[in-house]
From TrEMBL:
Domain HTH lysR-type per the UniProt entry, residue ranges: 6-63
Gene that encodes it: gcvA-3
GO molecular function: DNA-binding transcription factor activity; sequence-specific DNA binding
PANTHER family tied to this protein: HTH-TYPE TRANSCRIPTIONAL REGULATOR (PTHR30537), HTH-TYPE TRANSCRIPTIONAL REGULATOR TRPI (PTHR30537:SF74)
Sequence similarity: Belongs to the LysR transcriptional regulatory family.
Xref: InterPro entries: LysR-type_TF_proteobact-type, LysR_HTH_N, LysR_subst-bd, WH-like_DNA-bd_sf, WH_DNA-bd_sf
UniProt xrefs under Pfam families: HTH_1 (PF00126), LysR_substrate (PF03466)
Lineage of the organism: Bacteria, Pseudomonadati, Pseudomonadota, Alphaproteobacteria, Hyphomicrobiales
Taxonomy, superkingdom: Bacteria
An individual GO BP term: DNA-templated transcription
Keywords recorded for this protein, A-Z: DNA-binding, Plasmid, Transcription, Transcription regulation
Name of the protein in question: Glycine-cleavage system transcriptional activator GcvA 3
UniProt keyword RNA-binding, yes or no: no
CDD domains membership: PBP2_GcdR_TrpI_HvrB_AmpR_like (cd08432)
SUPFAM superfamilies in UniProt: Periplasmic binding protein-like II, Winged helix' DNA-binding domain
Amino acid sequence: MTRKLPPLTTLPAFDAAARHLSFTKAAGELNVTHGAISRAVRNLEEVLGLRLFERGTRSVRLTPEGAAYSAEIAAALDRVGIATMAATASRSTGVLNVSTSDGFAGRWLVPRLHKFHRANTGIDVRLSTSGTLSDFIRDGIDLAIRYGDGNYEKVVSELLMDEDVSPVCSPELLNGSHPLRGPEDLKYHRLIHDNFRIGWQTWLQAAGLYGIDHTAGVKFESAAYAVEAAVQGEGVLLGRSALVAADIAADRLIRPFDVALKSRWSYYVVYPEGALRHRKVRAFRDWLFSEVRAG
């Protein structure tokens, strides 16, 4: 039976525009021009004989027919993506593409990665540490370690570990003219900031300290650099438990006082439906959980 199909090249443009409700954002996602998205959608509408979008001066919205068609097309493109990943897995069994943050990669994953490679000599892990949320199909990602609430659409999400935050510093700061012995002594020391969602203001309020300038100090966009600055004695960092655990175990960092805040967010192992059929994905997923259990 001959399939009745629209121009297939128009479907990614329509899908992106329907998800974003913006031709401009769809163009940015697909790395094409606004005009290319508009032409593709118009072409699709002409072929279907349907109006898919209501176009305003600065916005678009789906028509009822467009919304129904969008849901079906999105599901179909997802199935095509999964089938493509499965079909190409056999020729890329030696490469595992993993997406995570630079802080988690630098302070937790990379120091342990040699153990995975030692046990899985046929799998080469390639890390992507982009600050943006990777798309599994478009970016060719096999598995991601994401930090958030675990609610990610159309993928499997498994809790890997929770996290808390507390001040950490080099043991050197316990000595000197103003030894760090209690929270009130923070006023004598430089605060180190990173781009974490829980900042010094929140922690100081929880500790009942209001005479310390929470904006002062040195700031890093990278959590990995912030931890390294604390190791080098540059000041006191509000350390995330997962990122400072190895340095605390090696006595490069200490918790000078025990006032910890539990984070609302956690680390999740995230992967597409069916990804565990591939040995390399299952092996890495299982290894991650074994590392967390081992501490």
